[in-house]
Amino acid sequence: MRFSNAVALAAAHAPFAKAHGGIGLPKIHGLVDSLDKRADALVASFKTEIFGIDSHVDSVLEARGGASPMECGEGIGSCPADRGCCSTAGYCGSNSSYCYSPNCQYKYGPGCPEHQKPEGKSTESIPRAKIGSVPYGGSGIYGEYFACKNPGHVAITYDDGPHKDTTTTILDLFKKYDAKATFFITGNNIAKGQIDKTQEFIDVIKRMDAEGHQIASHTWTHLDLSKIDADTRKDQILNVEGALNNIVGKIPTYLRPPYSSCTPESGCEQFMSDMGYHIIYFKLNTDDYNQNPRNTFQNSLDWFKGNMTQPDMSPEKNSTISISHDIIEKTANELTELMLKTITDLGYKGVTVGECLGDPKDNWYRQFGDSADRVGANATSTSTASSSGASGTSSSSSASSLSSSSPSGSNTASGSAAPEQTTSVATAIMRNAGLAFSALAFALATSAL
């Protein structure tokens, strides 16, 4: 990676590297993926103007003429109430630079979003009956083991939203194409504020529900569910449940773990089963979060279209779940219409994940009024996905999963082939790289003080 880019941008963008580095980082067939190029694209793709967030470096430099920056973190201590957030760099403050989650050090920052909760009654005590045939917990629905119940279905999904105008643009396009999507919603991350206390988010989530899209959970502040303690993991689930209940009166039963990370060793898989959640991963990764909007975003368009137009692909026998991010401007303004036009022209139908899996709409949500009566309505199976096997849906499905072989057409960024569309948790290297860039930039900046 170019040194100048690392110093100037790393501290501002390391939070997003950490937030998304573990989701389906593509493997290029026959090539060695370049860490420098991938990191360069990732850092450049989330410029500060997208979210309006200052860097930690700027925040510390501003303190030169005022109060000295107060340190926090492991071995140091917690922030006081008036500087309630402990930033990833280990300094106390109260603006978005310090309070940006998932990187706010919530153990040492009482003002971090992790400690903010939705108003109203907790959802912890609601009945969590396991109904329908879609597995609960376990290894989830993903990759080579995935197929929709019916061929010809494509479930386009979005993570991390809603965010300002981008999600509204996406909803407009789905209405234009008479298609449905699934939105895996975060409750209070990337400094956007609580979804149930921000009117623009309340409005867009209500619109999702009214127009027949599926609302699902992506946790409260996008923490790695495999790396946090049991109480924090529970809060990550209950808080977003409470917020969505406040907005639409519904509690989702579908969830996508941040970083695609929910391991059996951590207890996450069993926890999700106990909480009554279907764990949903993906098959077709557009890799939109990992592109530079100025010069590599075309990759995402090429990868989606290339995979859907492979010679052995047809709506008569194939189906898939794709992943994108509705917080990205180019995803809203370019990628979404390309995806919708492609599947429409090829004869596929854009559906929710629930419809893709053949799950009745009544099963997608819970409510405070749930009772044993609801179990009797559709009770067929209370299966839990195996930690080592398939999702359980493909065994009853005649639709074959989407092949991960190279699509027709070339990938201009990597030379010849589309990324292998897998859900790899092992790609945490990018998260570590992002934090390393942040530390380097911070050290250089503070040395001048």
Give the structure's gist in a few sentences.
The chain is α/β, with parallel strands linked by helices. It contains 14 helices and 15 strands. β10 (284-285), α10 (298-308) and β11 (318-325) form a beta-alpha-beta unit.
Mean pLDDT: 75
Helix and strand succession? HEHHHEEHEHEHEHEEHEEHEHEHEHEEH
User: In percent, how helical is the residue content?
Assistant: 25-40%
DSSP summary, beta strand count: 15
Number of helices: 14
| Largest sheet composition | 7 strands, parallel
Q: How much of the residues is beta strand, in percent?
A: 5-15%
Report the C-alpha radius of gyration, rounded: 21 Å
| Unreliable segments of 5+ consecutive residues | 1-66, 371-383, 386-449
Described by the principal axes of the CA atoms, the overall outline is globular
| Main structural class | alpha/beta
Distance between the termini: 26 Å
Protein name: Glycoside hydrolase/deacetylase
InterPro entries: Chitin-bd_1 (IPR001002), Chitin-binding_1_CS (IPR018371), Endochitinase-like_sf (IPR036861), Glyco_hydro/deAcase_b/a-brl (IPR011330), NODB_dom (IPR002509)
Organism: Didymella heteroderae
Pfam families: Polysacc_deac_1 (PF01522)
Written description of the protein model:
Keywords: Carbohydrate metabolism, Chitin-binding, Cobalt, Disulfide bond, Hydrolase, Metal-binding, Signal. By secondary structure, the chain is an alpha/beta fold. It is built from 14 helices and 15 strands. Strands 4, 5, 6, 10, 11, 12 and 14 form a 7-stranded parallel sheet that branches. Strands 1-15 form a two-stranded antiparallel ribbon. A two-stranded antiparallel sheet has the order 2-3. Helix 6 (164-176) packs parallel to helix 7 and helix 6 (164-176) packs parallel to helix 11. Residues 1-66, 371-383 and 386-449 have low confidence and may be disordered.
